[in-house]
């Protein structure tokens, strides 16, 4: 992606992007990926900001509808084990696949850092354990 840089309120910024309309970034929605968090900043006068700790991310999905593909955009949906923001949509951004790869890379780094495995996140999300897994039927 781009070179890492420090931004005043966010720390080490890996990527920033804006929501696009017709391929043009003319929105007041801004996305910021740091080495530990993914932020969404929305609004002009009344600013609302949401964030997800990367180690809490459970899964990702990528949507590429025709209208967005025409302009080289896509939408990334990040599912996380977070009560305030369980699903974060990074809507209509340029070069969605490389951005998704960057998010996946930093999520994996954070999981290794905190020694979290996929099965830990499934158990944390409240899913029941399949019968027979622990030797009981």
Descriptors for this entry?
137 residues; 3 helices; globular; five-stranded antiparallel beta sheet; alpha+beta; three-stranded antiparallel beta sheet; disordered C terminus
How do you describe this structure in short?
The chain has 137 residues and is α+β, with helices and mostly antiparallel strands.
Structural notes for this entry:
- Mean pLDDT is 85; it is low at 128-137.
- The radius of gyration is 17 Å and the shape is globular.
- It has 3 helices and 8 strands; from the N terminus they run E-E-E-E-E-E-H-E-E-H-H.
- It has 137 residues and is an alpha+beta fold.
- The strands form 2 sheets. A 5-stranded antiparallel β-sheet has the order 1-2-3-4-5, with helices on one face.
SS elements, strand count: 8
Instruction: Give a short account of the largest sheet.
Output: 5 strands, antiparallel
Question: What number is the mean pLDDT?
Answer: 85
Low-confidence sequence ranges: 128-137
Helices and strands, in order, run as: EEEEEEHEEHH
What proportion strand? Answer: 35-45%
**Strand arrangement in the largest pleated sheet:** 1-2-3-4-5
How much is the radius of gyration in Å? 17 Å
Shape: globular
Distance between the termini: 49 Å
Total helices: the number is 3
């Amino acid at each position: 992606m781009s070179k890492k840089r420090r931004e005043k309120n966010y720390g080490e910024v890996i990527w920033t992007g804006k929501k696009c309309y017709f391929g043009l970034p003319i929105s007041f929605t801004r996305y910021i990926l740091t080495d530990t968090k993914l932020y969404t900043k929305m609004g002009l006068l009344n600013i609302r900001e949401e964030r997800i700790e990367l180690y809490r991310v459970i899964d990702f999905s990528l949507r590429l509808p025709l209208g967005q593909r025409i302009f080289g955009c896509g939408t990334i949906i990040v599912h996380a084990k977070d009560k305030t923001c369980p699903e974060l949509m990074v809507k209509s951004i340029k070069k969605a696949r490389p951005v998704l790869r960057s998010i996946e890379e930093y999520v994996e780094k954070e999981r290794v850092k905190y020694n979290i495995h996929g099965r830990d996140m499934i158990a944390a999300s409240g899913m029941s354990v399949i019968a027979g897994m622990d030797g009981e039927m």
